[in-house]
Amino acid sequence: MSTLVMITLTDPGEGLTEAEILDIKVGVGDTVAINDPVIEVETAKSAVELPSHIAGRVTRVLVSVGDEVVVGAPLIEVDTDPDGGDGAGSDQAAAARQQATAGEGTGAQDSTSAQEQAAPPADSGAEEDAAPAADPSAEEPGTQAQEATESAAEEEQPKNLVGYGTRSGASRRRRRVAAQDGEDQDQQVPIDRILAKPPVRKLARDLGIALADVFATGPGGTVTREDVLAAQQRAIGDEPAPADGDYFPDESPQAPASLHGAMKSATSQPMDQQSFSGVTSDDRTTRVPIRSVRKRTAEAMVSSAFTAPHVTVFNEVDMTATMDLVRTLRASREWADVRISPLAIVAKALLVAIRRNPEVNASWNEDAQEIVYKHFVNLGIAAATPRGLIVPNIKDAHLLTLKELAEGINDLAKTARSGSTPLSATRNGTITVTNFGVFGIDSGTPILNPGESVILGMGAVKQKPWAVDGSIEVREVTQLALSFDHRLIDGALGSELLRDISAVLEQPQLGLVWG
Amino acid sequence: MSVFRTTIPQNAEDEPLVRLIAPDGTRTPHEELDAAVAHLTGEDLRRYYRDMVMIRAADLEATSLQRQGQLGLWASALGQEGAQIGAGHAARTQDYLVPTYREHGIAWARGIEPWRLLDVWRGIAHGSYDPYELRTHPYMLVLGAQAPQAVGYAMGLQRDGLVGTGDDESDTAVLALFGDGSSSEGEVSEGFTFAASFQAPCVFFTQNNQWAISVPTSVQSRVPLAQRSRGWGIPSVRIDGNDVLAVYGAVRLALDAARRGEGPRYIEALTYRMAAHTTSDDPTRYRHSTEEEEWAAKDPIDRLRTYLEAQDEIDEAFVTRCDEEGHDLAMALHHQIHAMADPDPIEMFRNVYADPHPLVEAEREEFVQFRAQFEDETTTGEER
């Protein structure tokens, strides 16, 4: 049997985060010994050869010369037991012995994990009677609806509305009893008072789990580490897509860069197709297979545009006061290590406006014939990345302070640009903000992220003449565009939401009054 | 005239370079040093050869381990094995050695196993050998700082009556090691001042490996480094640092003099840092490969082997066995590194002060309570 081990990019200096592949010294089928150089990389500091930490036969090379890779990225896969564990190694007797041992060990592990799969942990095994989720596309909304009808009492407990529908077991019974009694205080905590210790909160954040989605079993209604892990397990169980790592493949969704050159002459050479598999090119056209992020973007756009009737309302807003606030915060010591952008204020204004118009934070469930109102906001931030459009969301954004929100946006953008956005970060969004202002344009008609009902677009902040108390002044102005699903949001409600957002941006102190 | 000089020649180029074994393996006689190495047997020299091979293998493995993400950083001593093994063995057991972070050969000669060095570079320990037991100071990371500290230790030996008594078993000296770059630090000058003024039993030993990271020695000093200490009245010598025998002889003479109460000595050993300054450095950016090839021809291991072969002291089988043992050591380190456990963070409060300190105790208590938050309460919760 074979034992596959990955050679990943280590930090070859002190605190470096990425490197460029200069040379690949092995190919598939080559045999490597411990410390054999396999790849040469160049970092900000130096060009270094990376030696293999294992012996075996190369089965995959996952990078190409010229690639920029982040520390931790897989480079080369090696089968440390290519000859079926018969210990046939000649010049590395010790290594071969070790491989043989490793091979046996892995065999044991394999059978163990097979058993685990055959007999899931008691926790999840008991779920089967509940909601077998006939249609994988019916995710939280369906589950949630089912859950909501299952127990009317539970509807009053927003904290547990989402994601535990298939949960069963002792703690659940306890909770039901409590709900009927109406006395169990620890299960009645409002959404902004979820009890969890800082390390547990961090774990949830790292895993992309909203604490509101976690079923609390700890003493006093606290969320425990195991609760978070259980919630993650359920999320994985629902997941029809491939593993996280494959979801955002490292390839451009756009045409090859050489396309720009092709337009400059009447006839051109067929393009370099090395880094772009499946691309075909003649002297007049280049054909790129539709796949990965491009494919999913297209599917999402089509499903959204042709199922949800979109209405977009526009408003031009005097952002001067907001920009003053941004400048003040930038200069303040407390914000020294957080980059604050107008987008963060716009996001905060949106959250404040949602609080005044909670009906907008909902989704249309065609299958269940229900409108699902969310008691939490997972705020999506549209990010243009080298891999295409990705919309990760900030879990429970309604619970965050402005600073936490700004940090969350920065982290999200950074992770998205580096290509390491986990799949979980893009699930369960409720409302999205897109900032086409960064491209320097004034406005657009954003299309809803599927499953959501509102998307707010923000244009570039520009100096413009503006009428203030009867005279013309130069003010900083931006245009907001708000698209909503007209099936469940009427024009009046959508307009009210946009007006409230605009009001907070024009007078940030309203955030104090409404927030 | 002693091999340790007190006068500076008119012309800097007239400063002699003392060596016993030339790069081609031929033996040059030298009256004073010959006497200092006369007691060494073929067995001793074979041991030094093996030591150099072993520490080079460990060194190369450590560099690989850093590239494989197992160490945060590594400073290679490649090419300096002769200077380090020679100096390390020349010291007596009771002498106190104060090394820099590039002294893996010194550590080996003092009986410190290489894996004890790796955990510091892995970032899981501040040091894991007993400096008192092995009479070897923890690796000095703040370069130059060791000179006044070593002199202070030497002055302490004077006050303890451990210098110049004529008892070979108790008389003690200090060997302070630093490189050409550190020799330009102010602290080395301060160390020279105190050592000279108090005639402290301290031998300063510089491995001039030609490069202070990217700064060549020629930029740092207009004269051979050996001449610097003579302004303080500290006798000094410039030797071939890739000649393990000359290093042994010179260091032995210097330490003997210091133990006898004759005051400090300074030795400049010319050698070459064959690898990068550390694994974070890329020497191709500031030096030519021709220079590296030139020094490769002066390699300390090849040189001793050529000499011993000419003396019929070693054969092919011995050389092969040393190489195999080196490989085994490297593979042992390769596998051992994964077994190195992260320390309990509470350990950081130990060894802050020699005696208990109320503030450290308070911080320790605070940390214990902070950490208790991270423990999984469900394992102790009343529901289970």
UniProtKB/TrEMBL annotation, chain A:
Q: Where is the composition biased (Low complexity)?
A: 89-110, 131-151
The cross-references to InterPro entries, in alphabetical order and at most eight, read: 2-oxoA_DH_lipoyl-BS, 2-oxoacid_DH_actylTfrase, 2-oxoacid_DH_E2_comp, Biotin_lipoyl, CAT-like_dom_sf, E3-bd_dom_sf, PSBD, Single_hybrid_motif
Q: What is this protein called?
A: Dihydrolipoamide acetyltransferase component of pyruvate dehydrogenase complex
Protein EC: 2.3.1.-
| Residue ranges annotated for the Lipoyl-binding domain, each copy included | 4-79
Give a GO molecular function annotation for the protein. Answer: lipoic acid binding
Region span, Disordered: 76-188, 238-286
The record's annotation in CDD domains points to: lipoyl_domain
Q: Name one GO cellular component term.
A: cytoplasm
Q: Where is the composition biased (Polar residues)?
A: 265-280
Organism lineage: Bacteria, Bacillati, Actinomycetota, Actinomycetes, Micrococcales
| Pfam families membership | 2-oxoacid_dh, Biotin_lipoyl, E3_binding
What general EC class does the enzyme of this chain belong to? transferase
Q: Which UniProt keywords apply?
A: Acyltransferase, Lipoyl, Transferase
**Species the sequence originates in:** Brachybacterium endophyticum
TrEMBL record, chain B:
Q: Which GO terms describe its biological process?
A: branched-chain amino acid catabolic process
Show the GO MF annotations: branched-chain 2-oxo acid dehydrogenase activity; magnesium ion binding
Annotated membrane-spanning segments are none
Enzyme category, top tier? oxidoreductase
Catalysed reaction, written as an equation: N(6)-[(R)-lipoyl]-L-lysyl-[protein] + 3-methyl-2-oxobutanoate + H(+) = N(6)-[(R)-S(8)-2-methylpropanoyldihydrolipoyl]-L-lysyl-[protein] + CO2
What family does this belong to? Belongs to the BCKDHA family.
**What is the purpose of this protein?**
The branched-chain alpha-keto dehydrogenase complex catalyzes the overall conversion of alpha-keto acids to acyl-CoA and CO(2). It contains multiple copies of three enzymatic components: branched-chain alpha-keto acid decarboxylase (E1), lipoamide acyltransferase (E2) and lipoamide dehydrogenase (E3).
Protein name per Swiss-Prot or TrEMBL: 2-oxoisovalerate dehydrogenase subunit alpha
Identify the species of origin. Brachybacterium endophyticum
